[in-house]
Design brief:
There is one protein chain. The chain is α/β, with parallel strands linked by helices. The chain contains ten helices and eight strands. Helix 9 runs antiparallel to helix 10 (265-298). The chain has an eight-stranded mixed beta sheet with strand order 7-5-6-4-1-2-3-8, sandwiched between helices. The protein folds into two domains: 2-208 and 302-310, Spore Coat Polysaccharide Biosynthesis Protein SpsA, Chain A; 228-298. The chain has helices spanning 20-32, 51-61, 76-86, 105-114, 132-148, 165-172, 181-188, 211-225, 228-257, 265-298; strands spanning 7-13, 38-44, 65-70, 91-94, 119-127, 157-164, 192-199, 305-310. 30% of the residues are buried. The protein is 50% helix and 17% strand.
């Protein structure tokens, strides 16, 4: 019976007790309009509020809903990956529960998929309810990422997208643990397009991507798709060495001509501070890559599932 499912909607959850009922309602209204069989796959990423309990109530009510419960919080990208691994539809949609990405756009994505596109991502043309700083940093980051990698990573795009099951299978074959799913979807290729939409303010609750998690996601994106930061370190080091050599020669000649002390303490301290800063920046960049190698070498699973709740055996709506 599962093979008859056309669409799987993957919804990662982390402390979404205030929005989960409304999110389910909106998603169900939209998916019912397709007239085809579908499933909704909730992935509870170790929530510590009432999210799990409310998701279980939905499962009891609707046999077209699955609930994956993690053993603890493994992160948004792990939750997306788990949902795609469990999904059985011909097309898989990933959407957050906060309703910032409007579920109604899924119907436009489905139309593109039926036209032959294998990846349809949502492109934000406007972001409501977000600070200027967040909008600016997000816009800047996407463009920096695009310039750093040979992969055509679309700008102003999050994880909200539809992918064909063959794309899902290709993603499942990739072994890396520190995943940047939206970048990997671009990397695997296939026929891709987009639909534009306005990103709304959260329906309720607080963002699950504070500054720390945003920085980690950004670093995962850059280090998983590009090694250019390491090349930049080499360039910076070479340039600083040349600048240091030339400035040292100039200062020595100046001090000889004007009969000043060749060694100027303040100059030495400032140069040392500058060089130490560059060294630590370089070590930090290399540390990001070494850390990723360390995580991959441990070969631990990306997530651990506590249980999966599904009542699909009785009926599928």
């Amino acid at each position: 019976m599962e093979n008859n499912i056309v669409y799987s909607v993957v919804v990662p959850l982390y402390n979404e007790e205030l929005v989960i009922f409304e999110s389910y309602k909106r998603l169900k209204e939209v998916m019912d309009k397709t007239g085809e069989k579908y499933e909704i796959v909730f992935v509870n990423d170790g929530s510590i509020d009432a999210t799990r309990k409310k998701a279980e109530l939905i499962c009891n009510k609707d046999r077209g809903v699955k609930l994956i419960n993690f053993s603890r919080n493994f992160g948004h990208q792990a939750a997306i990956t788990a949902g795609m691994d469990v999904a059985v539809g011909d097309a898989i949609v990933v959407i957050d529960a906060d309703l910032q990405d409007p579920p109604e756009v899924i119907l436009e994505m489905i139309e593109k998929w039926k036209q032959g596109y294998e990846v349809v991502y949502g492109k934000r043309i406007k972001r409501e309810g977000e600070s200027f700083l967040k909008k600016f940093t997000a816009k800047t980051y996407y463009r920096i990422l695009k310039s750093m990698t040979s992969v055509d990573v679309p700008v102003d795009v999050g994880d909200f997208r539809l992918i064909d099951k063959k794309v899902c299978a290709a993603l499942a074959s990739l072994p890396e643990k520190n995943r940047y799913v939206r970048g990997l979807v671009s990397w695997v290729g296939f026929k891709q397009t987009y639909v534009e939409f306005v990103r709304h303010e959260r329906f309720a609750g607080e963002t699950k991507y504070p500054l720390g998690k945003m920085i980690k996601l950004a670093m995962d994106g850059i280090t998983s798709l590009s090694h250019r930061p390491l090349i930049f370190v080499n360039y910076i080091g070479t340039a600083c060495s040349l600048i240091g050599l030339i400035s040292t020669i100039v200062i020595i000649m100046r001090n000889i001509i004007y009969q000043h002390n060749i060694l100027d303490l303040s100059l030495i301290l400032s140069l040392n501070t500058f060089m130490f800063g560059l060294v630590f920046i370089s070590l930090g960049i290399m540390g990001q890559y070494i850390g990723r190698i360390f995580d991959e070498a441990k070969d631990r699973p990306m997530y651990i599932i506590d249980n999966i709740i599904s009542y699909r055996d009785v009926d599928i709506k």
